[in-house]
Design a protein that fits this description.
The complex is a heterodimer. Chain A is mainly β. Chain A has a single domain, classed as Immunoglobulins (Immunoglobulin-like, Sandwich). Chain A is 0% helix and 58% strand. Chain A contains no helices and eleven strands. In chain A, strands 2, 4, 5, 9, 10 and 11 form a six-stranded mixed β-sheet that branches. A five-stranded antiparallel β-sheet of chain A has the order 1-3-8-7-6, with no helix packed on it. The radius of gyration of chain A is 13 Å and the shape is globular. The N and C termini of chain A lie far apart (37 Å). In chain A, 35% of the residues are buried. Chain B is built from one helix and eleven strands. In chain B, the strands form two sheets. In chain B, strands 2, 4, 5, 6, 9, 10 and 11 form a seven-stranded mixed β-sheet that branches. A four-stranded antiparallel β-sheet of chain B has the order 1-3-8-7, with no helix packed on it. In chain B, a hairpin with a 2-residue loop joins strand 5 and strand 6. Chains A and B meet through strand 4, strand 5, strand 9 and strand 10 of A and strand 4, strand 5, strand 9 and strand 10 of B.
């Protein structure tokens, strides 16, 4: 099953610009998470937003959640070359299953 | 340092052979997971375990087997019945319950190539 779908699939921007990626999901959620994956590596948890929260910040990251539209967005401000990675949203399905979207491949050009 | 160790990092297998991927964690997490990732794709859940001696099939369990004899260890065997095993395999763990909120800690992955 595929709960989340990220959009766009790929994004290329210049260093210093902001990057926005979106995630849509299908069923009701308790929380939604965003993860980052550098090429050929494991995923790293970035931020979790609960269903009763609308916005959350962590450093240069800002996540929003709209449960009425079943969507979330991840904004990375003042992007750096080191932000080049794939970004995944994930939601819980069933008792303990975390289901991931297809991911957005972000490239930051120097 | 606490974390998850996967081994080997790279593995080559001939068709018809079974291979076992190791996953060990020292985070004292109750739950452990195996995901498969194909190039340019998201993660698909193979198996997960919430407690020792218990595990459940994920979305793509056919051709795979697991065991959970110890809290720290969750090895994955890719059997010859798996028709297309070449992929990147990721192990993860999490605390259970509301406090854990299903936040996963991942290992660095094992890349399996069938020759």
């Amino acid at each position: 099953s595929q709960q989340g779908e990220e959009d766009p699939q790929a994004l290329s921007i210049q260093e210093g610009e902001n990057a926005t990626m979106n995630c849509s999901y299908k069923t009701s959620i308790n929380n939604l998470q965003w993860y980052r994956q550098n090429s050929g590596r494991g995923l790293v948890h970035l931020i979790l937003i609960r269903s009763n929260e609308r916005e959350k910040h962590s450093g240069r990251l800002r996540v929003t959640l709209d449960t009425s539209k079943k969507s979330s967005s991840l904004l990375i401000t003042a992007s750096r070359a080191a932000d080049t990675a794939s970004y995944f949203c994930a939601t819980v399905e069933g008792a303990q299953k975390l289901v991931f979207g297809q991911g957005t491949r972000l490239t930051i050009n120097p | 340092d606490g974390g998850i160790t996967q081994s080997p990092k790279y593995l080559f297998r001939k068709e018809g052979q079974n291979v076992t991927l190791s996953c060990e964690q020292n985070l004292n997490h109750d739950a452990m997971y195996w995901y498969r990732q194909d190039p340019g794709q998201g993660l698909r859940l193979i198996y997960y375990s919430q407690i020792v001696n218990d595990f459940q099939k994920g979305d793509i369990a056919e051709g795979y087997s697991v065991s959970r004899e110890k809290k720290e260890s969750f090895p994955l065997t890719v059997t010859s019945a798996q028709k297309n095993p070449t992929a990147f395999y990721l192990c993860a763990s999490s605390r259970t319950g509301v406090a854990g909120a299903n936040v996963l800690t991942f290992g660095a992955g094992s890349r399996l190539t069938v020759l």
